[in-house]
């Protein structure tokens, strides 16, 4: 009997050891002694299966089946959000599952072409929980450090931003991206004897006047032609910028009385370009400002379908208004 008991105990011990080894091989930490964190990025719209596969490839988990089991057992399947996660290889599968299904350490932010800096502040307030003071500091302090950086240099792009980033750091991040993307254009504007600030203002007008890239060079040509003959630009988007936020809307529809707004941005009343850009334009609008289409047109409109129609004279423009609007 003693021999039988010993055999059973040895068997159970071996079974326990084997079970522990198997468990560790499936669910254990990849490197239990490594607390150093590195950023694991989950792209927007990436399928969960691919994310889990990359966790294995990047050495954060030992087994994809085991990790899927953990997600299913903890009812966390489908809960991995896009963003950046600071992960260490000393986390086991259970700990890692909790980490990547919690709030990310970095969030994806998409800043669209043609919005103004105040809209960016509202976006950040929603994404990062900015206080009203954070928003005010962004609008009135951190984006007013230089005259030429009041507007237009908060580059529209897709960003992966740490949730701990301060509003002044974010302003500099967007400016840095603008400087990087705009750098090739500076010399090109200089070669045409155009200040980069002038080019950026015109790009912002083009961006707000159409969402169709193919129309941008023609609108650019009309704007440059009006400036050349000292004609008022008479661009509705500048009135929208001057009006600011109306109710809960930016860029509200222009009314006839808006043409008499007392503002340096009112291009119906003031000749030349507005004091600053009126939005943050994308590369297509900047390219169009640099390379306008030569045209005899001075007027343009978009019909309800979005098709652009231009005219050389005001009389032709009125006919287009009657015909298309």
From TrEMBL:
Species annotation: Candidatus Amesbacteria bacterium RIFOXYB1_FULL_44_23
Alphabetized Pfam families for the sequence: YceG
GO molecular function per UniProt: lytic endotransglycosylase activity
Family under the similarity heading: Belongs to the transglycosylase MltG family.
Site residues by UniProt (Important for catalytic activity): 209
Protein EC: 4.2.2.29
KW Transmembrane (keyword) present: yes
Top EC class, one word: lyase
Name recorded for this polypeptide: Endolytic murein transglycosylase
InterPro entries linked: MLTG-like (IPR003770)
Ubl conjugation among keywords: no
One GO BP annotation of this record: peptidoglycan biosynthetic process
